[in-house]
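B., you asked whether I could sanity-check this one before it goes into the benchmark set. Here's the sequence:
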Amino acid sequence: MESYKDCYDILINPLYNKMTTLEIIIGTKCQNACKYCYRVKNQCEGSLIDMPISKVKFYIENAIEMGLIDSKMLNVDIFGGEPIVDIDYFKSLLELLKNYTNEINIPTNGRILENIKDQDIDEIVKSSDNKVFFSLSIDSPFQEEINRPLSEFGKMQGMKQERNWDRLFYLSKKYKMGFHPMLSFETVDKWYDTWKFFVDNEALCYLLEVRHPLNKKQMFDAVYQLVKIKKEIDKRKIDFSYNIFAPCFIQRGMSCSAQNTLSINTDGGVYFCHRLMNERFKIADLNTKEVDASKFVLWKGLYDKRNQPVCISCPIRNTCASQCLGATFEYWGGYGGLTIPIPSICQYFLLKQYIFYRNFEEWTSFIEQYTSVKNLEKSVYGNFGKDVIEEFEEKLKNV
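And here's what the prediction gave me:
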């Protein structure tokens, strides 16, 4: 690493610096031990809060001085563990962060919010000057107990496994909280029921697949569930855009926020993303004001999911949502692997886009404009077999 002063022009160059979001990681504690969460293994580490307010301010001011972020960011996210484990600390953090942005986003399991009074939530909102927005990471009654069991910490805080759904939907409406259920392939048969549960309760929900390795049965089951959801959306004329049904044209990929987010960990390190927080992926140190300029340029500036070696010849290169780089790194055992996508997820995306192309008009135009239909069909038939695909399409006619 070198002093930021020796590479300041690089750090502020918009070709490389695309930061619009500042992410503050406050610790490891969470009331849930979600089966698919990569942070669960860290829950026993550290204190209740590993990021004192004074440290947060120190790190932010240094990041601004170094040119890594602007003094006023488009968004600030609070990340953990769970961002809300101590209400007094949380309010103090909001009082600080409101000075650096007009929007503070809180992805939360909602355990604390569900169990406090409206008056307490009003005070939280007030402490942020009405800049705070909550996104409820909750999976519906069909998946919650399976996918999101209470952690030992959650039990210590007196939480109960069963959710108060009436209370949660009330809070959602009053405070404009959206839900973002995670669609796990382990509970793929519950995807439609999960989506319908939230929509029937007039709640906004953001759908996202847990992009971990899967088998071929799960691939077909998942696409079946998504087609079922999409047809119901079209039937009801629901005016809401779900990323899960959209092609992706952006450089970083749909599932990755690494290139536009500056993640500050509790140690003052700036890492490629919040899933790759180890020395290999350390870009800057906010304690010493040092930067690895080559990592900053390569990962924050030039990385493009379309240019990974496996992806260059892929028929859906231009429309693929891509994969989580942290999950990819873990899949290959931590030995390289960032540029080698998880094979089964690639197969799933190929199947998904081909079936969408065959079933939805907007996808027909996307694929015909940005992809070789012939090559896509050849790839799908090669991976799954023409007879299998034709049989699956017959099944979809009854959805």
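One thing to flag: The longest strand covers residues 21-25. Otherwise nothing jumped out at me.
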